[in-house]
């Protein structure tokens, strides 16, 4: 049995941040288990053509590890992975990282107050604390469309891309029109003989204020005051964007006007424009930031199909109007199973209670971090910590800082366990759901919501609100034993 103080599941951004901060705090008794062969998490999985971050890169880097190497404002996936490698090297994390190891089960042992964590290679770990940093967008979801298994061509999910795939000369169908689809459609359209986009719901699209970072930018970015100013600027701009989700705000009016102007400028055909106007209020689903999505849709080799998919046959897709769309390749940009994002690990807490049972009606946690009945279990990017307006790293860092404080607090009190009180978690989630109920996010279907309609993903407020709540936490909602 391998022993450690903190076991981290997942080597994405949040696992990396947790590991780096543990190391910086002088806590070297930790290990990171990652099922993929390399570092990256979502950036390892999502290697489809065109993958890039949709917030400015100066804000998509850790505050403790600025990156003067970004080559453009909206960095592409390989650059982000390279950044993550850099951080891991700079922080000396290599000896702690274990790749190609899939965690299957984690059981809290009440006798020893430790987590017993089993993996698919038969190795067992014993850890005082268990940090799950797998994130909400880790389980790709194929659409449940009749006949999908019968398709004779290739089926590719965007998060399980084949790097060797060549679109040239192929008849490609793309199901989905979310953030992912908006990124992969333009490059695929360039090579494909024919690209058919199956749209169930049109989305709001805003321009991406992208630009390359030249030598001057990169030189200046090495100066800490300059880097801090750029970061502070983007923080303020994106935080202001949160107002865009509130009815009647200036930001919302500005976003509407900008979206409409982009659509008019890039799609001259009124009939196509009508198909691309979203049938739900702006912000309910994640906004798309793109300068080339609409442009790709007006190409002569691209067709936008809005009739519902009736079934998939060996030859392609048949839509509700009876039309058969012959395809060689079916690309599913159909997102992730967020509601069951942790279902691949059987997590068993106090009294033999399974997390899957505790979350039967959808995931919920106290401030996204802790769940009653699961002592010493910490979630990174847990329920209701996703953001629709800014960088997710701004939620990861305070979460990590809070976990470190909780560990110190437990030691200070001579406690073996820290566990959120059930009444506190209930009250927190009731307040959160009451706030979300009348928000824009309750007006449509999206990955933010469980099948029941409950919003399981989004933090409804400004970033600073979440950060302050964690910083001011005096652990009154926690039991130390
Ligand atoms: P998504 O937002 O959940 O979009 C899935 C798409 O597939 C939607 O258009 C959905 O239509 C469609 N779809 C699903 N099942 C379908 C079915 N059975 N038939 C027809 N259409 C179906 O997934 P995503 O685009 O992968 O994005 C998920 C999240 O990942 C984003 O919101 C974003 O937070 C993150 N992301 C970030 C970046 C970045 O920062 N670089 C890039 C990509 C993704 P409906 O809308 O009708 O449900």
- What does the overall shape look like? globular
Average pLDDT reading: 97
User: Could you name the CATH homologous superfamily of the largest domain?
Assistant: FAD/NAD(P)-binding domain
Number of distinct helices:
13
The first-level CATH class of the largest domain is given as Alpha Beta
Ligands in the structure?
Answer: NADP nicotinamide-adenine-dinucleotide phosphate
State which percent range the strand residues make up.
15-25%
Number of strands: 20
Instruction: Name the helicity range.
Output: 25-40%
Query: How large, in whole angstroms, is the Cα Rg?
Result: 23 Å
The biggest beta sheet reads: 8 strands, mixed
Model description:
The chain has 481 residues and is an alpha/beta fold. The chain folds into two domains: 282 residues, FAD/NAD(P)-binding domain, CATH 3.50.50; 185 residues, FAD/NAD(P)-binding domain, CATH 3.50.50.60. Helices cover 30% and strands 18% of the residues. It has 13 helices and 20 strands. β13 and β14 form a beta hairpin. The chain starts with a strand and ends with a strand. The model has no long low-confidence stretch (mean pLDDT 97). The structure holds NADP nicotinamide-adenine-dinucleotide phosphate. NADP nicotinamide-adenine-dinucleotide phosphate binds next to α4.
Features:
eight-stranded mixed sheet, 30% helix, 2 domains, FAD/NAD(P)-binding domain, 481 residues, alpha/beta, single chain
């Amino acid at each position: 049995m391998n022993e450690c103080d903190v076991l981290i599941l997942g080597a994405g951004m949040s696992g990396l941040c947790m590991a780096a901060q543990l190391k910086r705090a002088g806590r070297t008794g930790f290990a990171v288990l990652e099922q993929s062969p390399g570092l990256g998490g979502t950036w390892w999985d999502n290697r489809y053509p065109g993958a890039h971050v949709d917030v400015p890169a100066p804000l998509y880097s850790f505050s403790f590890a600025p990156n003067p190497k970004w080559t453009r404002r909206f960095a592409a996936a390989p650059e982000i992975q390279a950044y993550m490698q850099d951080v891991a090297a700079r922080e000396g994390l290599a000896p702690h990282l274990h790749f190609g190891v899939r965690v299957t089960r984690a059981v809290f042992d009440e006798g020893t107050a430790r987590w017993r964590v089993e993996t698919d290679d038969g190795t067992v770990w014993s850890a005082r604390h268990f940090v799950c940093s797998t994130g909400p967008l880790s389980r790709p979801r194929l659409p449940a469309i009749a006949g999908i298994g019968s398709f004779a061509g290739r089926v590719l999910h965007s998060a399980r891309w084949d790097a060797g795939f060549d679109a040239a000369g192929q008849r490609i169908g793309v199901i989905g029109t979310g953030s992912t689809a908006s990124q992969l459609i333009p490059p695929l359209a360039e090579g494909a003989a024919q690209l058919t986009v199956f749209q169930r719901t049109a989305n709001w699209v805003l321009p991406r204020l992208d630009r390359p970072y030249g030598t001057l930018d990169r030189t200046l970015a090495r100066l800490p005051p300059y880097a801090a100013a750029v970061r502070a600027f983007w923080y303020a701009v994106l935080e202001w964007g949160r107002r865009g989700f509130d009815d009647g705000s200036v930001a919302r009016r500005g976003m509407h006007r900008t979206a409409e102007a982009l659509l008019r400028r890039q799609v001259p055909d009124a009939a196509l424009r009508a198909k691309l106007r979203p049938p739900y209020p702006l912000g309910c689903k994640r906004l798309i930031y793109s300068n080339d999505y609409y442009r790709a849709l007006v190409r002569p080799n691209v067709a936008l199909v809005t009739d519902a998919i009736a079934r998939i046959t060996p030859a392609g897709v048949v839509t509700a109007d009876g039309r058969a769309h012959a395809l060689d390749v079916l690309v599913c940009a159909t997102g992730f199973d967020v509601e069951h994002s942790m279902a691949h690990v059987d997590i068993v807490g106090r009294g033999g209670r399974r997390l899957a049972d505790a979350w039967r009606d959808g995931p919920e946690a106290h401030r996204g971090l802790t769940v009653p009945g699961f002592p010493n279990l910490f979630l990174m990017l847990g329920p209701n910590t996703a953001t629709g307006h800014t960088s997710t790293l701004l939620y990861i860092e305070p979460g990590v800082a809070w976990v470190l404080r909780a560990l110190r607090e437990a030691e200070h009190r001579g406690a073996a366990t820290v566990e959120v009180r059930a009444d506190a978690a209930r009250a927190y989630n009731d307040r959160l759901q009451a706030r979300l109920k009348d928000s824009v996010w309750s007006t449509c279907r999206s990955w933010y919501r469980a099948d029941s309609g409950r919003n399981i993903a989004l933090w409804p407020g400004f970033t600073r609100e979440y950060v302050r709540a964690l910083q001011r936490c005096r652990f009154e909602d926690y039991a130390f034993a």
